[in-house]
Amino acid sequence: MTPTLRTRLTGGILLAIGAVIVLFPYYWLAVMATNTTGDIFTTPPKLTFGTHLFDNIGEVLDRIDFFGSLLNTVIVSVATTVLVLFFDSLAAFTFAKYAFPGRNVLFTILLATFVVPTQLSAIPQYSIMASIGWVGDLKALIVPAAANAFGIFWMRQYAASAIPDELLEAAKVDGAGFFRTYWTIAMPILRPALAFLGIFTFVTTWNDYLWPLIVMVDPSNTTLQVALNQLNGLYGADYSLVMAGTLMAVIPLLVVFLFGARHFIRNIAAGAVKG
């Protein structure tokens, strides 16, 4: 066996092991969703699919307003992702390519917010939402998350190296203003970074539990993660129902992730060819 073939074989084996490790939790989730709670706790654990999936799904739909919560989650996730992509890329483009008074100080303050735990902002943020009458409204989930420090930092780092200054100078000579330069010059170049940020923001917003639990006071009008928590009983949990509900919530997320990852890889490949 040649060294090249040995290297390829080793790499293939490592990739296969990694794929199994990554995919097994999803397989185990599907197995638990198709069995009863009693089957889940058998020893040794049952690793084959059961016949109770549709029974579990029906019970989930009877206990919670799954589709209403799903619609709320889709609205919040899509709106938040669109706003984050716009505001974060706009701020990052400004930080990366334009000099203005206090730029370094503002960016330092932005980076300092990374060390502040999200939980510390829950009480003042709730007070603000209560003062403007947004408690229990989806706007309380969308507007506070419309921009974030991580997205600005990520986009700024990418824009600083990916956008040539010569293009900006050429656009300025042609009479392009700030927003036209941002939209026609920066945005096409930033697509790979935007694709990653979009996937990250959508997944994070979809899985958010703490803030919706605090601000969405009506259990019948909430997001999917909070609604799924209602499947847990006061003295115990029917894990087969919880897993069935989780499986139903994960499937749309996987579709969005696979779709976004494909465009992310395509944009990176396109940029590599152009470079």
Automatic annotation (TrEMBL):
One Gene Ontology term from the biological process aspect of the record: transmembrane transport
Tell me which domain of life the UniProt entry assigns to the organism this sequence originates from. Bacteria
Tell me one Pfam family matched here.
Answer: BPD_transp_1
- List residues of the ABC transmembrane type-1 domain: 70-260
InterPro entries documented for this protein:
MetI-like, MetI-like_sf
Tell me which UniProt keywords the record has, alphabetically: Cell membrane, Membrane, Transmembrane, Transmembrane helix, Transport
> Carries keyword Glycosyltransferase?
no
Q: Tell me how this protein sits in the membrane.
A: Multi-pass membrane protein
Key word Phosphoprotein present: no
Q: Can you quote a single GO CC term?
A: plasma membrane
Subcellular location per the Swiss-Prot or TrEMBL entry? Cell membrane
Membrane-spanning ranges = 12-29, 70-93, 105-126, 138-155, 189-206, 239-259
The family this protein is said to belong to: Belongs to the binding-protein-dependent transport system permease family.
PANTHER family registered for this protein in UniProt:
ABC TRANSPORTER PERMEASE PROTEIN MG189-RELATED, ABC TRANSPORTER PERMEASE PROTEIN MG189-RELATED-RELATED
UniProt-recorded name of the protein: Cellobiose transport system permease protein
* Species whose genome carries this gene: Kibdelosporangium aridum
